[in-house]
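Case study.
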Amino acid sequence: MYAGHAALALLAKGKRPRIPIAVLVPVAFAPDWIEWVLQGFGIEYRMWSHSLVSVAIGATVLAGVYWLATRAGTDALVVALTYCSHWPADYITGFKPTWPGGPWVGLLLYRNPLADVVLECALIVACWFVYRASLPAVSRRRAIAFLVPLGLVGMQIGFAAMQSPNLG
Amino acid sequence: MILATPPAFHRAVTAWLTVGIALVLPWIWLIVLDRLLRRTR
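After joint prediction, the assembly is written out as follows.
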């Protein structure tokens, strides 16, 4: 999943507006960030970034750091849930590790790029409605409010086109 | 000596940088728009 992770960060922001979006977006993408950093060192090992075990550890650590910094227990829980959302989201679109020695599982929606785009765009719109409700009333109808989902949809389509050049 | 490095290395670096941009893009996009939208003045 790509832009769908950003949508889930929007959902969390909509529910807990006190948590900075600058925190929620990288948390929602955290396993991808870990994988990207590891790849920078030439390490290709998704067990450390995308397994159920690594997600549970990462979510606990980040939520703990957030709680230490803010002392806001519910917000820290939402940070953990945002991190954990990465795994089921990727389970739908890809094929992910579970635990060391455990099976790799997933529905591999990426094999049908169009269905993936449709699903992620629907998720973006649904999460945007929740996010939009958290905005000041005067901002909800502003044109830039609509740029939030439009930009993410554009990024998702661009991502899909790069993954599957024959999509169009 | 960039020209002397193997094409596979170039492809790997390009792919890695592309993923980095893909990770940063929604982050910046949402930070900027959220800041603008929560400014009530």
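Observations recorded in class. Chain B has a mean pLDDT of 88. Chain B touches chain A through 18 residues (CB under 8 Å). We will return to this complex in the next lecture.
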